[in-house]
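From the shared-data thread, chain only:
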Amino acid sequence: MNVNQHTPMASPYGQPQPGYGQPSYAPLDGGYPASYAPYNGPASAYQHGAPPQGPARGPPTSGPTPVSAPQQYSQYGHSQGGVQNGPPPMTQAPPRPAVSQPYNQGAMNLSGPPHPSYPQLYAPSPSMQHVTNQMTGMQITTGPPTPAGPGYAPPHSSQPPVSTAFQAAPPPLYTQAPPPAASTAPTQPPPPSGPAASQQYYGGPPPSQQPFNSSLPPTSQQQFTSSAPPPLSSQQTFPPSSSASSYAGPALPHSQAPAPPVSQPQQSFPPTQPPFSSAAPPPVSQPAFISGPPPAAQGSFPPRAPPPSSQPGSFPPPGPPPTSAPSSQYPGPMPPQQQPPPSQPSPYHSGPPPPRVQMPPTSMAQSNHLPPGPQGPPGPPGPLQQPGMQGGYPPQQNGAFGQVRGPQPGYAGPYPGQPNYGAPAPAPAPAPPAQKRLDPDAIPSPIQVIEDDKVKSTEAFTTGVRGQAPPLVTTNFQVKDQGNASPRFVRCTAYNMPCTADMAKQSQVPLAAVIKPLATLPPDETPPYLVDHGEGGPIRCNRCKAYMCPYMQFIEGGRRFQCGFCSCVTEVPPHYFQHLDHTGKRVDCYDRPELSLGSYEFLATVDYCKNNKLPQPPAFIFLIDVSYNAVKSGMVSIVCQELKTLLDYLPRENPDMDSVVRVGFVTYNKVLHFYNVKGSLAQPQMLVVSDVSDMFVPLLDGFLVNVNESRLVIESLLDQIPEMFADTRETETVFGPVIQAGLEALKAADCAGKLFVFHTSLPIAEAPGKLKNREDKKLIGTDKEKSLFQPQVGFYNTLAKECVAQGCCVDLFLFPNQYVDVATLGVVPVSTGGSVYKYTYFQAQSDKERFLNDLRRDIQKQVGFDAVMRVRTSTGIRATDFFGSFFMSNTTDVELAGLDCDKVVTVEFKHDDKLSEETGALMQCAVLYTSCSGQRRLRIHNMAVNCCSQLADLYRNCETDTIINFFSKYAFRGVLNNPTKAVRDTLVNQCAQILACYRKNCASPSSAGQLILPECMKLLPVYLNCVLKSDVLMPGADVSLDDRAYLRQLISCMDVAETHVFFYPRLLPLTKLESGSLPVAVRDSEERLSKGGVYLLETSLHLFLWVGASVQQELLLNIFGTQSFSQIDPNMTTLPVLDNPFSQRLREIIDSFRAQRSRYMKLMVVKQEDRAELIFRHFLVEDKSASGGASYVDFLCHMHKEIRQLLS
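Structure, as tokens:
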């Protein structure tokens, strides 16, 4: 069974070695959802037979299949399904490829000629040529295995699979193996592979082990790889099958036998091999498929070859190496196949490079099967194939992506003794040392996933297809509303809901929608139409009160309609009657927005107004702190100066008309000063209220005025305020009475409105809402820490309720120099739909720009008042929980005194009955609000999603970014009542349950040592780790309690695009800038930074420009206009305006980033090795954090361990 010899055959794939389960890869990679993919393990039979699986779905498939087809978009791609069982059907496969791109290429071949089945997985098996071509295209493949998944594929390439098989037996080993994968990875081009690979790692053992694999095997793998490029293609195939991302790796028929013993050793090798491949020698065969030199293209691989030696050295050069993976697994013998073809590089190997390409598909594998964690059970090797899979991981270790990495330090140990190979299980032992660490390039890369999605999403996204997952938030795309709400308004965690509560409970995937009701649309998309049904008001269902929408079915010739939510039949009012066409649709269907679109507005009648009378136009009241700190910091003069111009930009419906919003002004310290700015006065008049315990408004006429009628008086007032208080010595302030004053003014005017409060310090003066300093660092990390996030007095909760009843929204601008108790001061803004802005240690010179941009946007943005939101659902599910900035007096109505275009409400759904696959699940979000012109409206967003009875379908159609958005809000609310450690443990546990359920029910059988991730969730571990390491859940020593409370409130109403970049910042290399396109981002890790480069990091709240110590002089001149690194001013917050294309383009990029975010991001220049670099490093989220947060590689290993514990 030498894997080697076979190489070309490689059928292994095809045949399913027991171990392999080619499918396993598939999932990973590309899109193959193949839930199975993981399954690598078992018998070859699988592979083949299953093929059809995709659609059939068979057990594993079930899940996948659906996915596959439809989803190519979705990350999975359908292929996955197919993969899982056997080779998936070809048809399915193809779509996958799309995703992975590279995939197609020969994943199939991989198996060897025979295994077309595999190919099926992917698509029809690609011909050698196809593969080759693909490979070439993918050349990076090696690294990137783009196709499949971001980096998975490569590992696949050859060894991994093998290792997998083995793995089973000695999981631990394997685990290590994965690391090797990394090494392999190096081979592969870093980029693509990255993600995929990373997945792999994940899977794989804890970092330590991985390394070890990586080192050896990888080597070999690489070597092989190079030699056997052609096969690679086929390899690729594999991955697809894995779709799951499992990454199991190819099955290596031959290897199988030996596998057991080898397995352990193999581990060692894996390192050498590419991430996936490496482990699986069998896969090798795949490579064989590649048969063409394609592998070469992989280029990376070839180099790999030598690396092998370097790696452990132990491997001999390629010859053995190829086997190495396997061989390691196989004790020594394995060799026959393996060894032999060094040139061939065992199928796996050789294939590797191309496989790499394929690998991508692998990605699935990789994602799915990570190398077994260290924990991998030593158990018997299990079918060899498994080892193969395992192998897969290892490669990652090396860093499939990047250049060859050389053996990881750790690895060497194990491998070194090539012996490992031969040696049986023992190898694992060494592994630990080798363990050193997984190759980050071999685990799933967020950048690869993001870039792959951009490539896929070239056409407009049409919303007419039920249950279709939209492009990622990081992709620029146009939306065409054809019956479901645009993803800019509604994003779901899953577009395939489980049919039953039991199934939802089993998977633990949260069922939620992130709704942004008044989201701003890009200029090329049409805002929701306004529909006026006259005095009768909107047409609604008699029973559930759902509004007319595309899900209503007209019957009896159009005289009645059946509700899509509750099935009740309602008469159609005579004025709304219309005949039906031959399909049962109304003939005016496409003329009416409410019958053909997902989002639209109704004009509300007086019945929808408070007290049954039409609302007055809203008012804006500015309340300015004029205590000593406020005046000395420059805040008071900056606010007064800016308001003079801002009052011309109050919100309005029609840009050509004046705003109808009225304005009023109050200043305060320990007492309140109201101003009469009536237009008929020559000078403003000040009225002082010193009895703050019983607040009232001392004037009615002249307090709220129209800007144009009172412009001169207002400007006179704004000029006088800074002078009046210039010499103040009052340091104490009040806060509760300030909000009460604004509320009373709005009550007196009988209108809704917004209060803009500019405040500097803890309100310690005697008054309602007085606070004391309770900041106590000793409570951090204890059970009493939660009390610090709760308001210290109940006064503000009661006040917030009164504000909501009046439609009084509060926006708070804080300028603290010390503790101000944001947890308490933020209660009213958060409960009224308002916002908190915080400028700690405010300095006029450096912070003025940020503050004024925030203020301008806050005043000008579209906003609704006195809003009530209700989410209705079809029978079977209901909205049970809500997250965001709002108030709820009952269980169904979300009340918002103010609702602006940036606010998001997150809704969680639970089953209360069974759902059916035929009808799907419907939700309708209706928001009743008063526009800024004083018009009462209803905004309706409709969303239909599919329902599934197979878990694989659920896992094929999820959106990880939205799941992370939900988890972060769930966790950040959890810290109010639980210790932060308990909250972190809950998140890790739920994530492990999600992935373990997938592994158990959707992935193909494979060694427990492999980490298998669903294609669309392969980034769940890296993003979840970012949430766990956030300042709210794991603060650094320098993070204040106020900062944590501020972030906790801020995240609660962030949309998916903002939480994505908040938790996983965008890091752009700025060596070359082209107009019209952004440079491709790099991963958030210090090892990705080059001393000779300049990088821009965006976090949604901050912008950092990091400058390397040995940066080229040309870059310095272009950006800063200085000759040397030492001349850069680290305190600059704006870049100089220089007359060169680079400077202009860089400033355009910064401006465009700022325009995408709801808050202005201040620029901070960070020089390498400067003190500010500590702050910058905090946002390199793939590295270990100073506060104790795990690195991505370590966390992946930890997740793998948690998953294995759940499965055992």
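The first helix runs from residue 3 to 6.
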